[in-house]
Automatic annotation (TrEMBL):
<dbReference type="GO" id="GO:0016757">
    <property type="term" value="F:glycosyltransferase activity"/>
</dbReference>
<dbReference type="InterPro" id="IPR028098">
    <property type="entry name" value="Glyco_trans_4-like_N"/>
</dbReference>
<dbReference type="InterPro" id="IPR001296">
    <property type="entry name" value="Glyco_trans_1"/>
</dbReference>
<feature type="domain" description="Glycosyltransferase subfamily 4-like N-terminal">
    <location>
        <begin position="18"/>
        <end position="121"/>
    </location>
</feature>
<keyword id="KW-0808">Transferase</keyword>
<feature type="domain" description="Glycosyl transferase family 1">
    <location>
        <begin position="167"/>
        <end position="296"/>
    </location>
</feature>
<dbReference type="Pfam" id="PF00534">
    <property type="entry name" value="Glycos_transf_1"/>
</dbReference>
<protein>
    <submittedName>
        <fullName>Glycosyl transferase</fullName>
    </submittedName>
</protein>
<dbReference type="InterPro" id="IPR050194">
    <property type="entry name" value="Glycosyltransferase_grp1"/>
</dbReference>
<dbReference type="Pfam" id="PF13439">
    <property type="entry name" value="Glyco_transf_4"/>
</dbReference>
Length: 354
């Protein structure tokens, strides 16, 4: 199959540091190539891939100090996709709704995976207007605010099976991995560790918009002797960081569309203590790959519970549900469905006009 993957340009594929969407695009692209498909990746020029790379810009826009208008580069991206359209059997977009006016007029099959939160009133009239555009959700929960959208499937994210290895020690500390932001609630994770009398290590980045929150809420808590801030960790550093943890603490306070860090943790055999919010109940199997909680009291009690979980079974949850191979197979089924539907539509069109 000839497949185009269209990535955002803010980060390279894969990203050098933080960048969830671009990581998934990379894992999917490389797995499709591995399975023998002819894949073209539209992404920034500093991307690394075994697919054919078409680059609208030389490097990731977040790392380009000279880039002042990211939208301009994405318009160029869409024009380059249109120029190559006859070379594909299907186009898979990962750029939110930017391409909708273009893809509405395309004659070949296309699909869009929506990677972000959708609980914004502004999106309702947009998806009512573009109600024929086929879209894929990354969790069933993600769909709830937008019943107007043309949902055709939910495909959970996947990671390469060899990216992390299961490690089955007891763990020495609690772990927080992600961003220091109000919706991620790192202060809950810190407070949990202090209340339990257990060390916690935090690997996180601070976005500019969250700087005040970090300075006023988080920074004062970092002075506690049980708390260690290790900065932002690379892909290679995540293995050691997660495998040596008692549990990953994921006490979020927002409608998480998926939560990639949860499957990174269980891939290492490390259970997750997660707040019941967003996609959490779809990703974490309560009592098997972690514990799902609804209060700080429950979270405190769950620490002893996760210590007793079989870490080999935690890893098995990853292998069964969240591998890149499984993700690619699921998307190939989506592609086949859309190609067949488009083919039947073309046949009916010709028949009606004979």
């Amino acid at each position: 199959m000839r497949i185009a993957q269209v990535s955002p340009l803010f980060e390279s594929v894969p990203p050098k540091l933080y960048g969830g969407t671009e990581r998934i695009v990379s894992y999917l692209t490389e797995e499709l190539v591995k399975q023998g498909h002819e894949v073209t990746l539209f992404a920034s020029g500093d991307s690394e891939t075994k697919a054919k790379l078409i680059a609208p810009c030389n490097k990731a826009l977040r790392l380009d100090s000279e880039s002042m208008d990211p939208l301009a580069h994405h318009f160029t991206l869409m024009e380059m996709v249109q120029r190559e359209v006859d070379n594909f059997d299907i186009i898979h977009f990962h750029i939110d709704y930017l391409h909708f006016p273009l893809s509405r007029r395309m004659l070949i099959p296309h699909v869009s995976t929506l990677h972000g939160r959708l609980d914004m009133p502004d999106l309702i009239p947009l998806y009512k207007e573009y109600k024929e555009i086929p879209v894929v959700s990354i969790s069933d929960f993600q769909r709830k605010p937008l019943s107007e959208a043309n949902w055709i499937e939910t495909v959970y994210h996947g990671l390469p099976s060899n990216l992390y290895k299961g490690s089955y020690g007891e763990g020495k500390y609690l772990a927080f991995l992600g961003r220091f932001s109000p919706e991620k609630r790192p202060e809950r994770a810190i407070q949990l560790a202090i209340d339990a009398g257990i060390p916690i290590k935090l690997a996180a980045k601070v976005d500019t918009k969250d700087h005040e929150y970090f300075e006023t809420v988080i920074k004062p808590m970092l002075n506690h002797p049980l708390v260690e801030y290790v900065g932002e960790v690379s892909e290679k550093e995540k293995q050691e960081f997660l495998e040596n943890a008692i549990a990953l603490v994921f006490l979020i306070d927002w409608p998480e569309p998926f939560g990639l860090v949860m499957i990174e943790s269980i891939a290492c055999g490390t259970p997750v203590i997660a707040w019941r919010n967003g996609s959490v109940p779809e990703v974490i199997e309560d009592g098997v790959s972690g514990r799902i909680v609804e209060s700080m009291e429950e979270a405190l009690c769950s620490i002893e519970d996760v210590k007793k979980l079989d870490r080999a079974k935690v890893r098995a949850c990853f292998d069964k549900r969240f591998s890149a191979e499984r993700m690619a197979i699921d998307y190939l089924e989506v592609y086949d469905q859309l190609i067949k539907t488009k083919s039947m539509s073309n046949i009916n069109f010709v028949y009606k006009n004979v």
